[in-house]
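Sanity check. The docking grid for phosphoenolpyruvate depends on where the pocket ends up, so I'm generating a full predicted complex first rather than guessing from homology. Inputs follow.
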Amino acid sequence: MCRFVPFAERDAHSMAKLKQFSREYKEKDTVINIGDITIGAKSKVIIAGPCAIESREQLLAAARIVMQGGADIFRGGAFKPRTSPYDFQGLNEKGLEYLAEVRDVTGMKVITEVIETTAVHVVEQYVDILQVGSRNMQNFPLLKAVGRSTKPVVLKRGMAATLDEWLLAAEYILYEGNQQVILCERGIRTFERYTRYTMDLSSIPVLKKLSHLPVIVDPSHATGQHELVSPMAMAALVSGADGLMLEVHPNPSEALCDGPQSLDSAEYIPLMYQLKKLEKFLHEVNSKKCYEETVVATISN
Ligand code: PEP
Ligand code: MN
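Predicted complex below; grid placement will be based on this.
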């Protein structure tokens, strides 16, 4: 006989089973190695690049700026999941070819979003990391398909997803055998309309407590405004994020997608410099030595 179980109880029941994303399942932080880049270890990883791949020239210009700032991974969308069907949808496979060219020319690792299950096989041949976007966080066939890939996956938070739903989406990928999952906070929909979304900063320490998976933050999509990217990028690192995803464009006013939130070189290069300094500072303040000094100073006062 079927007993009615309230939603809250059902949720508690389903979360109680041991999940692969959980700290109970795996205590130590997951560290993902992509060549000489590590994600989830001590150093912060920076992913940067344009929202969309618009042309070969635009992509190479963006790559030059991103390289100069010292980011680790280059991003660019070839398949764009746009709200309106009349907006630029991406260059598709041609875009993947340009992205692969950037990888060959610069030596940077590359990431792009995959929006269709049937495209996973093609996309994974061109890139080092697959991205599942906010709009597809609960596209379960797609999650299963990237779960069968050998490439790491950045799983962005659904814009209306709770942390439990997001972690269970990650579980789909882990369950299929792909242990290389990176969670990306990109803002959630709230009643506030000043910013594009609301960046959920507290999700970072909560995820760190619940899960061993690396957590990165995308302040570009979270805020929708280029001038808010720098403060929120810094806040994310201070809150314990393992890295950032930043939209950078050689000429944001002419971008075919997400220009208002894209950094130009004059904003991006100084930000990268500040982030490196902040990273050093965080190593220091989070160190055992600093903690012990603080305790001694507090007691002796
Ligand atoms: C993106 O990173 O290109 C993107 C579309 O972001 P999101 O899925 O977070 O909206
Ligand atoms: Mn974008």
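Relevant for the grid: Residues 51, 77, 113, 133-135, 156, 186, 218, 221 surround phosphoenolpyruvate (ligand 1) (CB under 6 Å).
Also worth noting: The mean pLDDT is 95.
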